[in-house]
Amino acid sequence: MKHVNHITNSSKTFLGGIFIVCLLIGSCKEEFLEVDPQGQQPEEQFWADEGDATEAVSALYGNLRGWTNVAFAPMAIESLASDDAEKGSSPGDASFLNKFDDFTATSTEGQLFDFWSGQYQNINFANQILANIPAINMDANLKTRYLAEAKFMRAYSHFRLVRAFGDVVLRLNLAAGAEEFNLPRTPKEQVYAAIEQDLVDAASILPQSYGPTDLGRVTKGAALALHAKVALYQRKWSDVLALTTQVMGLGYALFPDYEAQFRIANENNVESIFEIQAKFVQGNCDISNSQYSQIQGVRGAVGGGWGFNVPTADLAASYEANDPRRDATIIFRGETTPSGDAIASIGDNPRYNQKSYVPFSTYLSCAEGSEQNIRVIRYADVLLMNAEAANEIGGAANTTQALNSLNAVRARARGSNPLTVLPPVVTTDQAALRAAIYRERRSELAMEFDRFFDVIRQGRGAEVFGPKGFVAGRNEVWPLPQNEIDVSAGILTQNSGY
Questions:
Q1: What is the spatial distance between Cα 127 and Cα 142, in angstroms, rounded to a whole number?
Q2: Mean pLDDT over residues 474-495, rounded?
Q3: Given this model, what pLDDT does residue 340 score?
């Protein structure tokens, strides 16, 4: 099992040459993502020119696909607690992950620490960029854009933290002295405000699109869409509606084939708003380091994977009759995939995540599926956020808007298959439309690491997750890692009930 080096405490910054080594190890070399390791470069020689700035920003992107960002820790915290996924694999393999499925995880579980430290490493990378690039003599427009990209990344990681833990340490600067290393938790309302400001700043600078050599960089649309999601979690319905409306005017569209949009050939397509970029580079496993697909791949198949994070029977049963998204989301034991892989009829798990699937024939070395991008925000999500906000605001015009956005997603799922029956939603009753939107979010976004937090923000945790062990007033957030509390000498406090 592969892990990446990370900063061990949110109160630390990169010290001396550690920053340069960690910054460049694991970055990838394909246009802006391809950076050769230069671990011997002394820190005092870094941050000297435009090339250093480019390497630093490239490393920030490269870090997003590391172990703590896309593998076990986010799987545990952002997926397994939902009713969409369960541990999978063989019963005895990584059995500690079951504690996230049944809400028995305590503050000493290592995945909590990995997730926490992984996000703060991203934030620290961003803060290093924001602190050092302004003094570099370089192209002014590129400098401004790099700073905007760093602000987006900082907002993204703060958002992942605040929705997982509630109040967290807000880090907007590099620690200038000992007193700034060890900070208390910031109320979540202030964290959200800081996230929103970063995204406002980023959206004002970032371009709407890039040329082919910069494909995959964050855009104005990504900043606006993430801002909409941040507002959604705060129930700022007018902001969600306004932000999603802006995104809907930027030229995005639903990819015609729901299943095919998740395949490697269709990465960064017209529906993609933000993807974490991954790449297989022959002979370089340090660069080909994404294990997102590997941990979820079909267990026991050559070129498959480890078989974790498998769809539940409850998810499989939740789809409407003839909804093609069911078979596009779930690989069933005994089937043949659209790419032609025959799945064994016997094995440890009856189902696997098809959205993370990479055809077995593409496996060469390093990690299975290491070239599979991770879809973070899709246009379908924006349409469903738009529908939810319009419905919550209410009124005839907004109800019409909600139905239009909702039914656009359903129409794409319906496609041209005459056997597929997904009729348009027609109700104008606010409560009934709300329920339809909630159901559509599950069907459309299943296995994309949003379901647990969707249900929590909707106030339905006990209703939906109660049978799994969820306790209201406790399990809306995860416990802070105990080792972070210990090293803080009590400055960090634990969430209630843990």
A1: 17
A2: 96
A3: 95
Comma-separated ranges of CATH 1.25.40.390 domains in the chain: 17-205+477-487
Q: Specify the CATH number of the domain 17-205+477-487.
A: 1.25.40.390
In sign, the C-alpha dihedral spanning 93, 96, 97, 103 is positive
Bridge partners (DSSP) listed for residue 332? 351
User: How far is 366 from 289, CA to CA, in rounded Å?
Assistant: 8
Asked if 182 and 234 count as a contact pair (C-beta separation under 8 A), the reply is no
Q: What is the pTM of this model?
A: 0.92
Residues in the chain, how many? 498
Q: Is the pLDDT of residue 17 over 60?
A: no
pLDDT band with cut points at 50, 70 and 90 for residue 34? very low
Hey, how many other C-beta atoms are within 10 angstroms of the C-beta on 53? 23
